[in-house]
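Morning F.,

Quick status update on the modeling queue. The single chain you submitted on Monday has been processed. Sequence for confirmation:
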Amino acid sequence: MKALNILEKLATKGGVVGESARICKSNEEKTIQFLKECYEMSYSESICSIWGTDLVNEIRRYVLKKFPNLHYLPFEEKLVLNKIKQIRRKKSIKQEVIANYLGVTQSCYSKLEKGESCLTLNHLLQISNFFNLEIKDIVDNLFESPEEEF
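Structure tokens below.
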């Protein structure tokens, strides 16, 4: 079972998560609930760096396959990603151009922009540099209208 494989990997991470993963293994309902909670936690930059992108993406794929209507992304991160997309579109820049700058594939960048992979502070710094902006220019005033000049 895919869920048990993920639990095994989480168990190696130690701490409360590792212990919880070991406890949940014997109960499918608890396993699924625990993985849903891990899915929500996976949007934390610190959790993403501790667990690693591969494990985080494996958790996200499993949970989204099991619960196709579930989507969780911290509200502020959604707004930041929307603002990045907005800036890119306003400047008529294709995803592929930014992806090349970041050293990733267009598909990888698309997943980042959609919130399907971790937006790290390093990504945000590189993207702001690409646009010749400060990070604060992207994250400040997230509630302003899309007509704002960049």
